[in-house]
Write a structure and sequence with these properties.
125 residues, DNA-binding, Arc Repressor Mutant, subunit A, mainly alpha, 61% helix, HTH_HxlR (chains A, B), homodimer, 3-stranded antiparallel sheet
Chain lengths: 125, 125
DNA sequence: GTCAAAAGTCTATTTTTTAGACCACAAGAG
DNA sequence: CTCTTGTGGTCTAAAAAATAGACTTTTGAC
């Protein structure tokens, strides 16, 4: 129980640095949508459906910065922009898949826990 | 390419429902901190160090609701509260571990990508 | 007597997100 | 010709969320 104990995540730790980007509501959803293949901006928007243009735009930019997705602009009129997962993005699908699998497997437990908690707090009220 | 294609995550889909909770900046950090064993409120705060009391409190409450952590209040004065991972919380450590491992393995690529992007946008400016 | 610590809560300020208008241009309908 | 739709966004104003910091209550140390 000396200084060695835990504290693995100070501010500029790599894990935190990476996961903070992934952590938003939208990033995982976008990556998942692109897992099926290249999509254009508005295709993504329809796919995710309740994301605002601005958030989609911002998150795509972040994902592009971090090298998860590649953005290809076709200089046509009207403009066409295609977003595709990079190899890095694809490699991320593996741990993300496990996370989703876990969520899928356990969501009933979680839902039950939520209900339980709700009922307990009601009976205390 | 019919309706079957993708759209796996509408609003009330379980994955989304679960991951939205996990998705915050703090949840993963809290779970990671508790992976080492039971901690009290202020111990957690020192562990994570740049989390506000309010966010820690709120996130712990959410994690408790969802059944990831158990909260044990000792009715002493001053009050003592201990937070511990439940079995569900522990089982989550597995996919989370893979995610962290991936982040650890790839953060250099991501950092490089960020720098690259930055330089490209500077040369375009 | 004074100060710190416990585990939070409350409020005010700041940041982030959302909703929605707006842009230039072109193709298709009528 | 005009009207509407679709393209990939950006901009602004309003709503929601996060942060910082004071406050609470009781005990033990000094």
């Amino acid at each position: 129980m000396t200084a060695e104990t835990a504290a693995p995540c100070l501010e500029q730790c790599p894990i935190r640095n990476v996961l903070d980007r992934i952590g938003g509501q939208w990033s995982l959803l976008i990556i998942e949508a692109l897992a099926g293949g290249t999509l254009r901006f508005n295709e993504l928007r329809r796919e995710i459906d309740d994301i605002s243009r601005q958030m989609l735009s911002r998150n795509l930019k972040l994902l592009e910065q971090d090298g998860f997705v590649a953005r290809k602009l076709y200089p046509e009129v009207p403009p066409r922009v295609e977003y595709t997962l990079t190899p890095l993005g694809h490699s991320f699908l593996v741990p993300m898949g496990e996370l989703i699998h876990w969520a899928d497997e356990h969501h009933h437990v979680i839902l039950a826990s939520r209900l339980d908690y709700q009922q307990r707090s009601e009976s205390n009220a």
